[in-house]
Amino acid sequence: MICQTTGWGGQPVRAHGGSYEGDLASRLVPVKSANRIRVTFNASVSDELPWKFVPQQREVRVLPGETALAFYTAENRGSKDIIGVATYSVTPAQCAPYFSKIQCFCFEEQRLNAGETVDMPVFFYLDPDLLNDLNMKGVETVTLSYTFFKARYDNNGSFKAPGMI
């Protein structure tokens, strides 16, 4: 999935986070001796997309290595079917390499029929390697932000991700 390797403005977000190159399952062991990190959720929609888009929860608190599942809700308030695409960012920026999404909806076409409402999951974890990064010292809150845009296509009808046009 593209969101596992790139982020908003090219900000890198690796599938495994940190520097570890091994098996994903070995990264998914909660570090019980660590403090929980507050993950907050943000959502916005470009002006040209007649959608309502909101996180279903304001925040979750997770241990490094612990998986979490969050949901966003999108509603097409327009009178026509429309395709949107989401981009994301992680702040503060030094957290991006450690915020690993296992499943998400970013950079993929999302077609909503007129009046349709859908729930969109984000399954993620914070890589335990963040505990060894001095730049992460004192970081207690991470924010995951998504913005939905109207999908665009080139002259050949191929989908173009936001920022790639």
From TrEMBL:
It comes from the Eukaryota. The keyword Transmembrane applies. GO terms for cellular component: mitochondrial inner membrane; mitochondrial matrix. Coiled coil: none annotated. Keywords: Membrane, Transmembrane, Transmembrane helix. One of its GO terms (molecular function) is copper ion binding. NCBIfam families: PRK05089.1. Exerts its effect at some terminal stage of cytochrome c oxidase synthesis, probably by being involved in the insertion of the copper B into subunit I. This is Amine oxidase. It comes from Ophiocordyceps sinensis (strain Co18 / CGMCC 3.14243) (Yarsagumba caterpillar fungus).
